[in-house]
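Final report, closing paragraph on structural work. Over the funding period we assembled a curated collection of sequence-structure pairs, and we close with a single example.
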Amino acid sequence: MFDTSIFIKFFKNYIFYYIERVENTENQIGSKESLRERLTDQQYKCTQEADTEAPFTGIYWDETRDGTYRCIVCDEPLFSSGSKFDSGCGWPSFDAPIQEGIITFRSDQSFGMIRTETLCTNCGAHLGHIFPDGPTPTGDRYCINSACINLETEGN
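Its predicted structure, as stored:
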């Protein structure tokens, strides 16, 4: 026999956790208006409207310094420079995030293509896409807009 009181208790706790997380994220990143003030036009369009910067134009596509790539919206650490590689596509490419669960995936069928969009799990910012053609053992290529990340170099 299923005890509904346990289910209800779990459901209530989950809902409160979810609401608290959403409220904390909104407090952390601010309103859309404050994001427009804080981010550049390109950063806002890429993270909030799922726009894509032109290839070979972003500041990190050929970056080689060591460090941690963080979400430009919420400063969450996303990728290590150790997982970055030159894919030749014109965007920063990584073979794995810094930890499991830090990236959320969503189906993207825009522009007549079927792709998998990547988002920051913490704040929901669009980052780019993931493709199954990476050269490393993971087989993944996280193709990320430079406008969506910020490099924190070693020693800073």
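The two ends are 58 Å apart (CA to CA). The CA atoms of residues 63 and 92 lie 8 Å apart. We thank the funder for supporting this effort.
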